[in-house]
Write a structure and sequence with these properties.
Layout (H helix, E strand, L loop, with lengths): L19 H5 L6 E5 L6 E2 L2 E2 L2 H12 L3 E5 L13 H10 L9 H12 L7 E3 L15 H22 L4 E3 L10 H4 L7 H6 L7 E6 L14 H10 L4 E7 L8 H18 L5
Parallel strand pairs: 1-4, 5-6, 7-8
Antiparallel strand pairs: 2-3
């Protein structure tokens, strides 16, 4: 929520963090990922980039890089996305609370920051999956929609900004139900999708397996995702890696579990975690 400014209230509110506080406790030179949804940067029916400029300035002061995430799959901070959005809505529909279409927003923000050296890459969407509006999955339709979306929007970013990488942003790895959680990137379709010329860096999320350093213990898993991305000639980052600590006594064990994950995942070929 570093760039939310507490607006809307569900996306920060009084809990809006000053990103300089955590960064001052971390080594310089890290990369951090944050929401950069268009409703954070609207004021009086025009763009107001103050919050984003502040995040970039603070990151630069720490020699850090950032990954702005340009939309959200889920119904918080933004409107939920479905198959029709990935097929056409992203370019011809202005969602409630937004200033313009998603595609036009991406064009505007990328053109503005194309020369900013603090940006590591753009991520098109958080945990994108082209599900039907009843939450079922038509895998072939979903793959085709995500692939066309990635080709189009990723290709547009490359044309506007040759300085930065692009990540699509998928849900791969989240839990035990790959056909639901990887909708449009299920099993071998992940490799097809990541081969899009609009994608430079593959994405993976590791939750639910705190004591298993590589996450899910059966395919399709992180190991197979790395293999598929390398077959496409691309690197893979674990863009989210979460372990619960329900009380202060859980912090030290969590640190140990994260250390084991980082060691195993980097050794397996992950380029960022």
């Amino acid at each position: 929520m570093a760039a939310s400014g507490g607006t809307p209230s569900s996306c920060g509110g009084e809990l809006y963090p000053d990103v300089s506080v955590p960064l001052s406790d971390m080594p310089n030179g890290i990369v951090f990922r944050f929401w950069a949804f268009q409703n954070f940067f609207e004021s009086n029916n025009t763009w107001n980039w103050t919050n984003l400029d502040q995040v970039l300035s603070i990151a630069a002061a720490h020699d850090d890089k950032v990954i702005p995430v340009l939309a959200n799959q889920h119904n918080y901070c933004e409107n939920a996305k479905d198959l029709t959005w990935y097929q056409s809505g992203y370019k011809d529909t202005i969602e409630p609370g937004d200033l313009t279409t998603y595609r036009q927003y991406v064009s505007d923000i990328v053109a503005r920051y194309a020369d900013n050296p603090t940006i590591a890459m753009w991520q098109l969407v958080n945990e994108g999956q082209a599900i039907n509006n009843d939450n079922t999955c038509s895998e072939t339709d979903a793959l085709n929609a995500l692939l066309a979306f990635s080709n189009d929007v990723g290709g547009m970013i490359h044309s506007l900004d040759p300085n930065h990488l692009v990540s699509l942003g998928v849900l791969a790895g989240w839990n035990d139900i790959p056909n639901e959680q990887w909708c449009g990137a299920s099993n071998g379709d992940y490799q097809i999708l990541m081969a899009s010329p609009g994608v430079d860096v593959c994405d993976y999320h590791d939750y639910g397996y705190p004591t298993d350093p590589m996450g899910i213990t059966f395919a399709p898993d992180l190991t197979t995702a790395i293999q598929m991305c390398h077959a496409d000639g691309k690197p893979l980052m674990v863009a989210e890696n979460g372990i619960y600590a329900d009380n202060p006594a859980g912090l030290a064990p969590r640190a140990t579990e994260f250390s084991a994950k980082f060691s195993a995942q980097f050794q397996a070929g992950v380029v960022g975690d």
